[in-house]
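Inputs:
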Amino acid sequence: MKVISLITFQTILVGCINLQHVHDFSDSSLQATQKFEEIPYTFLQHCIDRCEMSAIDSFKIYREIKCSCDQYKRADSVTQLVYRALRGYFDGLTRLSKNQLTNYQIDRLKKAVQDEDLGVLQVNKEEANAYATLTDMMLRGFADSYRQKKIKAFISGANAPVQVLLSKLEFIESKNLKDLMEFKKERLFDHYRSLLQARLSDYEKQEATAHYYASLQGITILEKQCITYARSLRSIARGHQQLYENRNKISSEELRRTLTPYANDICDLISEFDKLKNR
Amino acid sequence: MAQLTSQQADDLANQFLALAQAIGDFRYNHWNDLSRVQHNRLASQHWSVLNYGEDILALSTVLIMDDIAPSLASIKKISGQIKSSLGTLKDIQKGIDISAAIVTFGAAIISKSPIAIGEAIDDLVQRWRTLV
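Outputs:
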């Protein structure tokens, strides 16, 4: 009896590995990374917009407008590759760190050994419950320690490439895509500034000016979305670095305290992004 | 010639934007002094310089590919390994279910009930199929 108690106690200790904070951070990171899909602007879209703007500016009407956008399509492909790689990694880490993953259902097994038709093999309800509890704990202990070992190894191997990919995606969003919008603003400014030099009524000039500011507002919101998204990527990178540096004490309270601000920061940025999207 | 980095390309694009803005401002500030031909030429040059800057930004993004190829390969490999670990953990549940089905099958044989044996075989086969 003492031996069983000792085994049970040890198993409980092993089975208490809580990776909830890793899961919370990873889940927030996944959600924030996926906001990429909600940014309604791509390199190709910019190319098409500029092509149309040029046609509008020169009063050119085509049955079908032809725009040369190959380089822009390639830029989108590279961005997609980086995004998908990051999404795949955080998706896997989120699922692997979920505590419920190792909550195995052993009711069927318990019922099977209790079956009345089992004859000589039959065990009573009390014994079946005891075996089931022990089995559950041992399974959980094995699975959780396997899970912890694996997560530690994955975080260790993934940190360097994750940092590179996050910084590149951040660069694309906060520099390249955002700077493209600066070009768009300049084109818009030039178009309306020139238009207002033409002979227009005061009403037409006011209408044109109102259109200009409405378009400018739209671009500014897009810019803010890109910047907010880039900030969330920076927070993810910092949080992952903490995870990497503390990988040897992955289920510790200290790591939970370290990671929580990053997860909170990412959640705040997600909410900021959503507010911009709904403006 | 040394290859342009994505950061250098981005800096260059911003120089093009500044140049384009200067051309646009020059045209606007001399609006009444310029002939129609001069206007058209400056307007065209203004937008061409903008085009170059934008094309460089797209190129800057494409150039990133050179820097990320090894990182992409590493992350894809690790993501595959994570999937495999998830599979291992889920297979444990399948193993438990199979064990339960085997015990039930054994009990059915002991009971010598043809109906129970038939049902237990069906259940065992079905659960086995989820494993393979």
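Remarks. Confidence is low (pLDDT under 50) at residues 1-15 of chain A. Helices of chain A lie at 2-15, 20-33, 43-57, 70-96, 107-114, 125-195, 202-245, 253-277.
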